[in-house]
Amino acid sequence: MIRPSSRRALLTGASATAAAAMLGGCDRLGNVEWFQRILRTGEDANMFVQRLLLTDRTLAPEYAEADISPWFKPNGTEDPPDRDYKALAKGKFAKYHLEVGGLVEAPYKLSLAELRKLPVRTQITRHDCVEGWSAIGKWTGVPLADLLSRAKLKPEGRYVVFHCADTMDQGNTLEGGGDGEETDEAPTGNANPSMTKQSGGDESRKDSGGQQATGDDAASGGTPVRYYESIDLVDAFHPQTILAYEMNGEALPVSNGAPLRLRVERNLGYKQAKYVMRIEVVEGFAHIGGGKGGYWEDQGYAWYAGI
Amino acid sequence: MFRHPLVIRVTHWLNAICLLVLLMSGLQIFNAHPALYWGNVSTFDTPLMAMSSTENDPSKGMTTVFGHAFDTTGWLGSSGGSNGEAADRGFPAWATLPSDQDLTGGRSWHFFFAWAFVLNGVAYLIYGLVSGQLRFRVIPSRDQIRHFGASIREHLTLRFPQGDEAKRYNAIQKLTYLVVLFVLLPVQVLAGLAMSPAMNAAFPFLLTLFDGRQSARTVHFVVAALLVLFVVVHVALVLLSGFWNNMRGMLTGWFVIERKVEPAPVTGESQA
């Protein structure tokens, strides 16, 4: 018979050991391919149910002028390092052209001035970063539906891919772990630097095995990996999905994605691609980047970003 | 006495697993932006609560609550990572799942176990309603309400009921379960959904209910803390009121009722 006191000590010791073993075990499980696939069914269920709950035209909440955040926190890339982009920015994007192509009958190019002549939509919406923070901004731009109708989609087109100007990695796929919208190393003029510091890559998941291998090992030869995103036609033709060239009534600043960024409301921040250069209609995205449909998706984030 | 039917035992342990995983993966998600706000948007300069680390070396972990700063080095803001070196992070590695900073991993765990938790909870509620167990377990009977004061006194002195009284939950137990089941857990699920931009489009009243998305995030955090408090008290009482008997009850269903003796034994350990 064990005396109560030693029995208690035994229990405490045993539970502490069990807890440590469990956490280690869960960490290891979380890096195993088949287990990851099981866990991801939760995110698949999110998409399935949310798509049932939303019609193609259900709008994200819109806000009043008074609700606009005084500072719209830029995240990810705030100043693309690419030479071509810098040249465009220097010329105030006068030489910028948006390319629309892929599985369309009539591919075309439009300058910023031409885009501004197309139908306009202005909306005040809330931006929710996957990290947890939110900001409200006013966006003015062209409904994506108009741009796509102009190009006339081929029947096999199922997704719209946004190719961006900003290079994320110089072929080094082991950068950056689980944080926000575009990239992680963003220590610039932040009113509260300690917070973005948290999202730094210093503690990234270097030891998390297979998950980091983004599939584009070819890129480690030095081909730069640029930001990209993809949405399906449900989101592409949604009335609030626009390519914005203005934020809060002024030309879109570089830090927020000049000259053109995607606003696909009802989705988290990493879907809101900045620095959009080219729109490509595709049947599937397995052949693009790491094959998961977006820069962050290639790092393990869910393709569907409604929650 | 046969106390816990199979469905209740199974749902109880599944629930325990779900809550633990949801808590730890939730702290992982929180660590991606360890600050809380009220309203729709983040007021970065004036959070309700924030964890951060100082620039100096070695860096100190600071937690600010309603404008008051506390040094929480080693626990919050800055703590030893899995490799032993101090890292800038909200909650420490031993409290998060996965233990390293990994937002996407945390989200995968969280969503999977959120579904498991909800489905398990629905199974429990349907069974509880149909079998009458729920009513028996959580609705205080009239005599219990009448003797509510005495029940509080018994609780404070840690005297646990014996004989016939031990066959049912006491008034405070019932009210606690009632609040957890029908207030805390539903609010927690709704607050979680209110953080989803797609759910905001489908059900805009969620934002009205919580006064904005960032408030919903804050409520989600606070309710999680209350659930932790509930579990701590629950486990403490399980230990104090006869650990092995309680465990046998929740594992096999069979619970030993002690015959009424005066005065009550001090340890509360039951003789099987």
UniProtKB/TrEMBL annotation, chain A:
Residues 93-169, 215-283 form the Oxidoreductase molybdopterin-binding domain. Residues 170-221 are annotated as: Disordered. Residues 1-20 form the signal peptide. The keyword Signal applies. The keyword Metal-binding does not apply. Pfam families: Oxidored_molyb. PANTHER family: BLL0505 PROTEIN, PROTEIN-METHIONINE-SULFOXIDE REDUCTASE. This is Molybdopterin-binding protein. It comes from Methylorubrum extorquens (Methylobacterium dichloromethanicum).
UniProtKB/TrEMBL annotation, chain B:
GO terms for molecular function: electron transfer activity; heme binding. It comes from the Bacteria. The chain crosses the membrane at residues 12-30, 109-130, 175-199, 219-240. Residues 3-253 form the Cytochrome b561 bacterial/Ni-hydrogenase domain. GO terms for cellular component: plasma membrane. GO terms for biological process: respiratory electron transport chain. The keyword Transmembrane helix applies. The keyword Ribosomal protein does not apply. It is found in: Cell membrane. Keywords: Cell membrane, Membrane, Plasmid, Transmembrane, Transmembrane helix. It is a multi-pass membrane protein. This is Cytochrome b/b6 domain-containing protein.
